[in-house]
Design a protein that fits this description.
38% of the residues lie in helices and 27% in strands. It is of the alpha+beta class and 175 residues long.
């Protein structure tokens, strides 16, 4: 009852009532840098087998790489999350000596971790997270390294920025 609330909160009654109802129009302001950047997908139909999971990891790698690059972050540690059909969750992590931000590097590390887990059960969810984040210039590419790979990432990032994260992905995701 607003009459009872007004005795307690006075002119702030409407504001407090809205907060109690989960209504808050104030903007969310955060000054902290993220601890990790990732993406996970819960599948409408459980996955079975390494090939199917690898295809989905390829797609996830593209999404995570894009998010890292657009926010200007590089990471050191990749964590793979797997939720089985029985809702049991496992995670596996690997730390790289070089910066992680390219889709290909993310995929190769995730694939390496996937090969170390038992997939005798169906998989309900897959997730990839990059942590150990830092901003700045990456040391992952030297002047002589694969600039075609870097350029390919830039082009796909531009398309994703213009048309959305899911506009482009590797065809091998679907075999």
């Amino acid at each position: 009852d607003e009459k009872i609330l007004s005795k307690i909160f006075g002119k702030n009654t409407a504001f407090v009532k809205n907060l109690a109802l989960g209504i808050d129009e104030r903007p969310v302001i955060t000054n902290s840098k993220p601890k990790s950047i990732g993406k996970e997908i819960t599948f409408s139909k459980d996955l079975s087998g390494y090939d199917t999971c690898r295809q989905q990891l390829l797609f996830l790698s593209g999404l995570v790489g894009y998010r890292l690059r657009t926010k200007g972050y590089y990471g050191q540690t990749l964590t793979l999350k797997i939720k089985y059909a029985d809702f049991r969750i496992i995670t596996r992590s690997i730390t790289s000596e070089s910066d992680i931000f390219c889709d290909e590097d993310i995929y190769n590390l995730a694939k390496q971790l996937l090969s170390s887990v038992n997939l005798s059960q169906a998989v309900r969810l897959l997730g990839i997270t990059i942590s150990g984040l830092h901003k700045g210039k990456s040391n992952a590419f030297s002047f002589t390294e694969d600039s075609r790979r870097q350029r390919r990432n830039e082009v796909t990032d531009n398309l994703k920025e213009r048309f959305g994260e899911k506009i482009i992905f590797r065809g091998s995701r679907y075999g």
